[in-house]
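ok trying again, last paste got cut off:
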Amino acid sequence: MLKAGTAWHLSAVRQNLPAYETHLERLLSHTRLNSIHWVNFDQRVVTLKTLNK
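nice, full thing came through this time. structure:
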C-alpha cells in the first residue's frame, strides 16, 4: 500500500549498495515525498528497504 508522499523505486544494483542508498536519500531530500520503498533485484538477492526523511 502506498500513502500520499510515498513512492516506489526499483533497481538492479549489483555492487556498492550503500553509495546507491545515499544517492536515493539525497533524491528524497529534494522532493515532497516522505518516504521511498526501495526494491533492489540482484542476481540472487532481493533487498527491500524503506527510506524516510
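cool. Residues 6-52 form one domain. DSSP finds one helix and three strands in the chain.
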